[in-house]
Amino acid sequence: MSTPTGMMTLWFARTTSSNALRKNDVNWRVAQYAACLALEVAGMVLILWDGLPIYRHLMTLEQVSTTADIAIMWTAVTAIQFSYWYMLRHDAPFRFPRQVFLAHILLFVSRLGFVFASSLFALVVFRYSDALVFQPSRVLLFIAVLFSVFCFSRYLETIGNLMLKDRQKNAEPLHLR
pTM of the prediction? Predict the structure, then answer.
């Protein structure tokens, strides 16, 4: 027969271990979220790091993309797409604090990144399309890079907008829809 003290001890042990599991689960979700965000940012940095020299050479009608450039771009696209779609399915494990200045910086970076992609698209498609040789695999990569930059910009914009909201309005989960 169990005593009230024994039952209380058992309940406390279950509650404590349950709370510890929930805390570990939240820590794990925060770590996953941070890792995905870092992966997405790294993908965008790769696109800009490798894309800017290519962009400069396109201005003079030189084709300079190498096998290494193509591998770097596919790596960046994969990193951004994996992270973006993972974070889209899962809510952020925390709320974003109201930080107007940082929000504006994120919104600015979001637009700036997409300006790069848009100008590259305009340069290639509207200005030099007749001078460049289009291969289906390279066209697919070009569209994948543009779409990845769009996804990255969309995510930064969502975070920036959440940081502009009041704390009470920021209580809803992060959805990009």
Answer: 0.68
